């Protein structure tokens, strides 16, 4: 069993939560203590540099963020990474590529995160937008049957937020190979980034890859990113950052875009998240902590949790498991209640035992991270066994 002892990195958050067992690392992973120092470093830079802080942010801070991001996903061109306050801004920028086209046919799944679901549900109200859905229970076969040259955009999560089911790298490679060259392919990596030791390097230059720093990357809010394909992108939804570095070269009455990831960015944002993210991954690099080691740590905790919890508890609460093989699975375990009201009742009982989990409809999710160890799991199981209907 590979379990790391890294609690000393998280002393502020652990102290802040006291005796509560926070089993929602997939929703909001605790931040290492170094992020507090990074937040103060950003403030100090503002105090020293005021307006000129942007020179440092664009020349030093953001390139380091892009470099860390590229290493984590095994991509070779960090300059092709766009940064934003959140991934939804980047997603809507992708969608804006089709405004001039006048029609849009999207192929996706019914298991995508809320912001995407809400966005396409609204778009489906427009007569020029069509949305088709692949069957995730038989993903590759369903995709092969449904992908056609008429599809403009594919959007599929790396890890489905409502179950934890993860798509393997080789499956994405096969799907992209089946996709016509003119069809853009978006992988929503948010629930897999910095958790699964994924390697999609064979798809670099072909796909959009979305992710962020709020969950497993442990940097908090404000760190959305998108890896761009090799393409001349001119999103309609754009901001002044997008021509940063090309302002002097721009011709009158011509909308220019930087050829790097900056060309897909928006406008002024709070850059403190980049400081925090850099501090986290500077620390982990120094400690020699790899994504494989992190994944092994979480897998070990998940297996310990399953073994100690057993099936009597889930049977008594009428819960079913939405997980099986943990080797390639998201960093949370999902138990499905009979319906939303049933799930809400169980969540309330769990919270009374000073346990924090999260719930998505009828799905109860338990997530573990680097600030957990075997003792935490044992304590969690003991408290859960007090819960009964």
Record keyword descriptors for this entry.
single chain, 389 residues, Aspartate Aminotransferase, domain 1, seven-stranded mixed beta sheet, four-stranded antiparallel beta sheet, 13 helices, 38% helix, 14% strand
Write up this protein.
- The chain is of the alpha/beta class and 389 residues long.
- The protein folds into two domains: 7-23 and 290-384, Aspartate Aminotransferase, domain 1 (Alpha-Beta Complex); 35-284, Aspartate Aminotransferase, domain 2.
- Helix content is 38%, strand content 14%.
- It has helices at residues 11-17, 25-28, 34-49, 53-73, 87-95, 114-123, 139-146, 169-178, 272-287, 291-309, 312-316, 340-351, 374-384; strands at residues 21-22, 81-84, 104-108, 129-133, 153-157, 184-188, 207-212, 224-227, 320-321, 332-336, 355-356, 358-360, 363-367.
- Strands 2-8-7-6-5-3-4 form a seven-stranded mixed β-sheet, with helices on both faces. A four-stranded antiparallel β-sheet has the order 9-10-13-12.
- Helix 3 packs across helix 9 (272-287) and helix 4 (53-73) packs across helix 9.
- The radius of gyration is 22 Å and the shape is globular.
- The two termini are 33 Å apart.
- 41% of the residues are buried.
């Amino acid at each position: 069993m590979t379990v790391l002892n890294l609690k000393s990195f998280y002393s502020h958050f652990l102290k802040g939560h006291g005796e509560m067992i926070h089993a929602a690392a997939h929703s909001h992973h605790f931040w290492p203590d170094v992020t507090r120092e990074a937040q103060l470093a950003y403030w100090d830079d503002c105090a020293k540099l005021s307006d000129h802080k942007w020179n440092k942010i664009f020349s030093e801070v953001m390139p380091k963020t892009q470099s860390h991001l590229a290493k984590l996903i095994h991509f070779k061109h960090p300059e092709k990474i766009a940064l934003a306050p959140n991934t939804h801004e980047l997603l809507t920028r992708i969608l804006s590529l089709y405004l001039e086209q006048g029609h849009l046919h999207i192929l996706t799944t019914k298991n995508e995160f809320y912001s995407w679901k809400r966005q396409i549900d609204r778009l489906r109200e427009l007569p020029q937008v069509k949305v088709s859905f692949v069957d995730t229970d038989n993903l590759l076969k369903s995709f092969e049957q449904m992908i056609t040259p008429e599809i403009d955009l594919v959007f599929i999560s790396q890890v489905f937020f409502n179950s934890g089911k993860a798509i393997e790298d080789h499956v994405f490679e096969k799907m992209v190979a089946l996709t016509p060259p003119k069809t853009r392919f978006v992988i929503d990596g948010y629930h897999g980034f910095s958790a699964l030791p994924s390697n999609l390097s064979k798809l670099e230059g072909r796909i959009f890859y979305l992710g962020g720093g709020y969950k497993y990357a442990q940097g908090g809010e404000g760190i959305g990113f998108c890896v761009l394909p090799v393409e001349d992108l001119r999103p309609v939804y754009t901001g002044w950052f997008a021509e940063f570095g090309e302002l002097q070269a721009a011709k009158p009455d011509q909308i220019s875009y930087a050829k790097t990831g900056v060309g897909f960015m928006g406008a002024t944002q709070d850059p403190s998240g980049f400081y925090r993210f850099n501090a986290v991954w500077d620390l982990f690099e120094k400690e020699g902590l790899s994504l494989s080691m992190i994944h092994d740590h979480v897998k070990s905790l998940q297996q310990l949790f399953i073994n100690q919890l057993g099936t009597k508890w889930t049977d008594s609460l009428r819960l079913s498991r939405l997980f099986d093989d943990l080797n390639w699975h998201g960093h949370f375990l999902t138990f499905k209640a009979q319906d939303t009201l049933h799930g809400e009742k169980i969540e309330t009982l769990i919270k009374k035992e000073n346990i924090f989990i999260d719930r998505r409809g009828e799905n109860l999710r338990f997530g573990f991270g680097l600030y957990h160890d075997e003792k935490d799991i044992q304590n969690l199981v003991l408290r859960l066994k007090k819960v009964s209907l």
